[in-house]
Amino acid sequence: MLVALGAIMAVSGPFQLKMSTTRGDYFVLTDAPTLSVDPRACEYFLEEIEKKLGVRVPRYTYYRVRTTQDVAVFTLEYADGVARWRSGEVWSVEPCHRHEMVHLASHRLGHPGRFWDEGLAMALDNRLNERRGRRLARHMGPAFGATVAVFSWWVGGVLQDGERMNSYEMAGAFVRHLIRQYNMQKIVEYFRACHVSDEDSSVFHRVFVRTIQEEAERWLR
């Protein structure tokens, strides 16, 4: 009861508590009380991710909204979901947004950059269309390494939703390749080595002993 009351008092906005568990508090919009949340699915998935990454996510707050416009109102980001790892908040149009749950965990490792953040979240989400992501990477050819460097800008307002998803899938397909080739421990090592964004990819080169372009060419043969 105290946990639920504390969560309600901490919320600023038109939300009501839908469910509270030992891991998190789940809210829905007050004017849409029939919106569903799925704590069991979220927490089962999160525990699997925590085991893979070797981290533990503190208590979090999950806000279920109706549309991407709702997400934008509360986060200023136009997306299906947004995770704020520092405050432990997830805003989503889904009852359980696995992609965003990965972000809650992965940001506790390090901050290599948005390409890697989104790539890891896509790689660990079974909805990844790996073939499409690989095809887009092949289309980039010699520019793939440069594309990684400017990914944060590239996935901004410049792209339409379909193009944005393609770019996320390209990142996810590449990260999944790295997991297969080197194992998850190597990915964790890379994230942990990045206290700030790996803008020049020098940390990647040191950890994987190849440039991003060299690894991409190996992947796309």
Layout of secondary structure:
Blueprint lengths: L1 H9 L4 E6 L3 E6 L9 H15 L6 E5 L3 H8 L5 E4 L4 E4 L5 H9 L7 H10 L6 H11 L3 H6 L1 H4 L6 H22 L1 H10 L8 H7 L3 H8 L2
Parallel strand pairs: 2-3, 3-5
Antiparallel strand pairs: 1-2, 4-5
Task: Tag the structure with descriptive keywords.
single chain, five-stranded mixed sheet, 5 strands, 221 residues, elongated, 12 helices, disordered N terminus, 54% helix, alpha/beta
Question: What does it look like?
Answer:
- The protein has helices at residues 2-10, 39-53, 68-75, 98-106, 114-123, 130-140, 144-149, 151-154, 161-182, 184-193, 202-208, 212-219; strands at 15-20, 24-29, 60-64, 81-84, 89-92.
- With 221 residues, it is an alpha/beta fold.
- It has a five-stranded mixed β-sheet with strand order 1-2-3-5-4, with helices on both faces.
- Strand 1 (15-20) and strand 2 form a beta hairpin.
